[in-house]
Amino acid sequence: MFNKDRWKEILEVLTSNVWRTIFTAFGVCWGIFILIVLLAAGKGLENGIKKDFGDIATNTMFMWTRSTTKAYEGLPKGRSFEFRTSDVQAIQDNVPNLRFISPRNQLSGFRSGGNNVIRGIRTGSYNVYGDYPEIINQDPMTVTSGRFINYNDITEKRKVAVIGRGVKSDLYEKDEEVLGTYIKIQGVNFMVIGTYKKNSNDGDGEEAQKEIFVPFTSFAQAFNRGEEVGWMAITAHDGHSISVLKEAIVGEMKKRHKVHPEDNRAIGYFDLYEQYNRVESLFGALKAVAYIVGIMVLLSGIIGVSNIMLIVVKERTKEIGIRRALGESPWSIKLQILMESIFLTLVSGMAGIIFGSLVIYGINSLLDSVGPVDMFLNPSVSVGVVSGALMILMFSGLLAGFIPANSAIRVRPIEALRTE
């Protein structure tokens, strides 16, 4: 391995026919390049799609009511009903393994065509949510000043609000103090106790920043909602799928509101965990395809290396015969052929890795200069993938040199010396 003469011989063999070596190396280089670029492209798509989920708790479902489509227990079809705050406790009591249940009410304002929030002479149209403190764990946001709503706010029905940076920029001067000031939401004054910002996860960053959060109880009191619940965000504990628990949750609500058990339209829901798993499965399949395509292309390059090494062995038949006649062991000759094959494969593969890395770096630089692109973000490959590629190259080099090496040691010295 560390014999200077052996490495000198390897370089002489590979440079004796430069173009043949280059074309042989290109097959391996191209194979590893394709593998890395395909994996990076798949990762970029995965990052872009998962960005839509943002930091939201993915083991979550959202549930709301709709009209019934079947008569049940003397009640007609087409009946409307609403969730109540007592339903929250019923779900907690009867469905295990739930981490958060957040009832929500909402005033729609953003893009609704009417201004629902006033501060002085400034007005704006914003989504206003009546929430419990747990919602920040289900739909994470960064509180940039002040605080988020807490249970003292809920218990005392405090008229306080947490506003997004979009609301702040609309209703306040650039350096104006926000905390402790008042905004009027549909004629009711609320004191601002905090500001937040969200990462743009749904392609509509403006809307994400133009939301206002107030305590659920003060929302109900201020806007005459009573015990009504508009919809719920429900998150399961880690290790328990909300997709498995949703049947029990919906069944409990059907029983409490006298909805036919087979009425699948009366209660609407969106299973975020199910959607997330579909995305995970899709990109798992794409990654498998990338590996298969890359490895098949790499395999074709390895076959090329093996064929070239067979030609090299045939060209050196007389030399091998002389070395055998002078007493060189079969293992030494076999090792020489294997090292030539591994060296050629590794150098070619490293060139492919470097070229692929430069292409990925160039794409990321381009994305940084032109701004974020929908559904494509930060294409990359992990160190583990590169390490795996190097292991594949090592194994491939051994595989490519194995047959030529065995062919070399089967040469009988006397026959080799006769070969012209």
Structure commentary:
- There is one protein chain.
- The protein has 420 residues and is of the alpha+beta class.
- It has 14 helices and 14 strands.
- Strands 1, 3, 4, 5, 6, 7, 8, 9, 10, 11, 13 and 14 form a twelve-stranded mixed β-sheet that branches. Strands 2-12 form a two-stranded antiparallel ribbon.
- Helix 3 crosses helix 9, helix 10 packs across helix 12 and helix 10 runs parallel beside helix 13.
- The longest helix has 44 residues.
- It starts with a helix and ends with a helix.
- The mean pLDDT is 82.
Summarize, please.
Helix content is 54%, strand content 17%. The chain is of the alpha+beta class and 420 residues long.
The sequence of SSEs as H and E is HHEEHEEEEHEHEHEEHEHEEHEHHHHH
Oligomeric category = single chain
Distance between the termini: 31 Å
Largest sheet: 12 strands, mixed
Low-confidence parts lasting 5 or more residues at pLDDT below 50? none
Mean pLDDT: 82
Number of strands: 14
Class from secondary-structure proportions? alpha+beta
Helix content bin: 40-55%
| 3D shape | elongated
Radius of gyration: 34 Å
Amount of beta strand: 15-25%
Number of helices: 14
